[in-house]
Amino acid sequence: MIKNPTAKDLHDLINGEEFLSIKDLNAGYGKMEILHDFNLSLEKGRSLCLIGPNGAGKSTVLHSIYGLSSIFKGSISLEEKNVTQLSPSEKLKHGGITYVLQDSSIFPDLTVRENLMMGAYIHENQKEAEIECERIFDKYERLFDRKDHKAKVLSGGERRLLEISRSLMMNPEVMLIDEPSIGLEPRFIDMVFDILSDLQEKEGKTILLVEQNAKKGLEFSDFGYVLVSGKIVMAGTGEELLKNEEVGRLFLGG
Prior knowledge:
Distance between the termini: 18 Å
Largest sheet: 7 strands, mixed
Mean pLDDT: 92
Number of domains: 1
Low-confidence stretches: none
Order of helices and strands: EHEEEHEEHEHHHHEHEHEEHH
Oligomer: single chain
Helix content: 25-40%
Shape: globular
Structural class: alpha/beta
CATH superfamily: P-loop containing nucleotide triphosphate hydrolases
Strand content: 25-35%
Number of helices: 11
Number of strands: 11
């Protein structure tokens, strides 16, 4: 576990080749800077959880990667390609980056199938999009059984599954997930993290998530960063942060 890590510390932590990286990023909204000289290193097919108090800048990291914040300085790279200034649609189509919002983003009066197809709105080949939709139905029986039902009848856990599944329609390499457990019953929280584990382990997805349920997030993730006031104050493996007394006292209720 590293306190106040440098960019080199974060690179050395992953012990492998950088796939997603952020270098000396200053970012925020309008003229307000939220992230200050922020760095990040993550290998392909690994997971990283961002934890910290409200207002620490966790979601701003995701927004910056996806193109939803103002970038004042620094760079964001994927496989050594600079993607800092790409729009969200370009990040999805050409960069292989998808974003699952914190707030519910399903269309309640559309069917489950129609919601899934909305995830392929920039797909150039409709037939391929339909094949991907069927692949998702084959993978998730819960959605298949309700494919012709309006999304508003789904449970909270099923809605979260639909949101995650919709983000898979363009077959992304990097998944940005904001608060996957928010508002869910414990049994659905376990289901969602089982789904994320499957996507990482069996499909090789690279996953960066923000999670207020720090224990669940760190148990799932290979690595964790603790953010305070737009800076990383601690970094380590998920296991190291779970065992750290200070992290436990501040974020794990210990």
